Structures are given as structure tokens and as C-alpha cells.
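Structure catalogue
Derive C-alpha cells from sequence
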Amino acid sequence: MRLRILGIAALTILLQACAYKGQIQSVSGAAEVMPTRRINADAAVRIDPELAEMSKKVNVGFVCGAHNYTITPGTAVSESIMRTLEPAFRSVSRVETREERPGTYFLDFKLDEFAPRLKFNPGFWMATPESTSEISIRVSAFRPDGTPAIRTTVRGQGNHEDGAGSCDKGMDVVEVATQEAVQRAMEDLAQKLINSKALVED
């Protein structure tokens, strides 16, 4: 009985050791906002809970497939959206409904797709990790009078490889690729929503 308990405990520890969880830092696409495109008005931003709380199990190939990798970038994505938009408006506030800030631009963000992938390239001594991450976010924008301004999808893709890594380094590679994907999406957001003048032109 004692050996069985020890065996179960050892198996539990082993399974925990094979589960990796990752997060990313927030980024900004504000550098892409053209100064001449800044809007002298207030904006209210709603970020759908599915996007704000986004967490995904990473798709892993056969090599190192016994390990579980989960990336949770939702909080960082929400912060990145706010950081990207703040320089583009007089003020930006986060809301749950349009009615909280009437008479402002209303920008609604929803998750379209998030696809983090991880593979391990077999080597002579170890398998080296490589990750590709793709994210797309649906954006619906309304003018202060309530009329629709634009509906679009912003996209970003990231890729990273660690030539000196192994199975236990997989999560680090996924984090870098995902942060790069969010950075590209925020740059795309600045171009499509602000620099395009879609919010101020009919």
C-alpha cells in the first residue's frame, strides 16, 4: 500500500512537471499612429470577455507531445489595445456597454481566432523548439452619433525558434512568438482603424 501511495505521488509530480503555463507582456502599436491622424475626441473601448480572458492550449507535434503547454495572453492583449489607442484620441476609457460613455467613439473588440503552435525539430542531441502564433481580432467602431464607422479584422503572426532549447524550453518560445503576433496585430490596428481615417470619413 505504501509503495502504491508513493507511486501515485511520484506520478502526480511527474505530470505537474510536464505542464507549462505562459503569459506575455503588453505591447503597443502606437508608434504606427500618424500624428496627423489623431482624433480630437473621446473613445470608449469594450473588450469582449472571450478576448480579455483568452487562454489556449498550444498545439504540439509528436516530439515532446507528452508535455502540455498553455498560453494565457488575454490580459496583455487588452492592455495592448488600450496602449495602442490612447495616443490616437483625446481620452480612452474601458467600458462594458456603449451606454456608459454616450457621445463618444465606441470601439468593440472580439476574438476572431488565436492559434499558437509548437513543434520540436529533432536534432543529434536534443529537439529544438519552434513556435508560430497567429491572432486575429474583430473590431466594430461607431461614431459619437451612433452610426457605424467600420468593421474590420486585425491580424498578427509571430515566429520564434530556439536552437539551444529542448522540451522544457517550449513555453519560452511560444511566449516570444505570441508576443510578436500581438505586436503585429496592434500595428495592423493602428493602420486600419486610425491611419485609414475610417472613423472620421464617410
Notes: The longest strand covers residues 105-121.
